[in-house]
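Posting this for the archive.
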Amino acid sequence: MDATELKLLCDERGFLIDTSAWVTEHAEALAKEEGITLTPAHWEILYLLRAFHTEFEESPANRALVNWVKRHKGPDKGNSIYLMRLFPGSPARVGSRIAGLPKPKNCL
């Protein structure tokens, strides 16, 4: 997927307009824009983000993301430092974007 195709699918902030249309190729392209090469550790969190969105119908803020990951994957992965290494800047915002979800409400 090239950048032009991806831009047509995204809003002005770079988030996918239709979250149900998300496929792994979107994640790869969005991650590339963020300067991230996706590893199995990234995918694990991306799928947890999508599960959170399915359950609560919104994207998590950072604190909610940390707690969600801790609940499902334990304290080694459910902490801010681990998530910041995977998704620098704002794990909730960057991770949600790559996972094809809306921007979390309280993220800049």
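Helices lie at 3-9, 24-34, 40-56, 62-73, 80-86, 91-98. The mean pLDDT is 92.
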